[in-house]
Amino acid sequence: MSGIVFFKTGNLNDIKLFYIEKIQCSLWMDQGDCVILQHGNFLIGFCERDSVDTQGMITFYYENKEAVDDMYEKFIDTADGAPRDNPKYPIYHFFCKDPEGRTLEFQYFYNLKNR
């Protein structure tokens, strides 16, 4: 692994539980007021602060469309719509928000095996 993306959070415990329970991240490191979570080879950190970072987008990659569909079932009430093809990139994906308003994307790359 070669990097970690960190975000400020106003509610570390709730954010930690959301990413562990809903997205199935694992706890990689707990530093007290900062936690680093792991999803595959992706590390993401959240640090308790007075302000919250909500800019940008957090994208989770999956090995097949069925895994994206499974995540959609978990977020069906908050998703921006059903998973769909995006031929421009080409991906299969959907979006939703985490409890603090960060945009989350769940996606599968069609042509990844050709790279």
Describe this structure in words.
A hairpin with a 2-residue loop joins strand 3 (34-39) and strand 4. The protein folds into two domains: 1-53, 2,3-Dihydroxybiphenyl 1,2-Dioxygenase, domain 1; 54-115, 2,3-Dihydroxybiphenyl 1,2-Dioxygenase, domain 1, CATH 3.10.180.10. The strands form two sheets. A four-stranded mixed beta sheet has the order 1-4-3-2, with helices on one face. The protein contains two helices and eight strands, in the order βαββββαβββ. The protein has helices at 12-22, 65-75; strands at 5-9, 26-30, 34-39, 42-48, 57-61, 84-86, 91-97, 103-109. By secondary structure, the chain is an alpha/beta fold.
Main sheet record? 4 strands, mixed
Helix content range: 10-25%
Q: Give me the strand/helix succession.
A: EHEEEEHEEE
What's the domain count?
2
| Known CATH architecture of the largest domain | Roll
Question: Can you tag this structure with a few keywords?
Answer:
single chain; 115 residues; alpha/beta; 2,3-Dihydroxybiphenyl 1,2-Dioxygenase, domain 1; 2 domains; four-stranded mixed sheet; 2 helices; 8 strands; globular
Map the helices and strands.
Blueprint: E1 5-9, H1 12-22, E2 26-30, E3 34-39, E4 42-48, E5 57-61, H2 65-75, E6 84-86, E7 91-97, E8 103-109
Parallel strand pairs: 1-4, 5-8
Antiparallel strand pairs: 2-3, 3-4, 6-7, 7-8
Kindly summarize this structure in a few lines.
Helices cover 19% and strands 39% of the residues. It is an alpha/beta fold and 115 residues long.
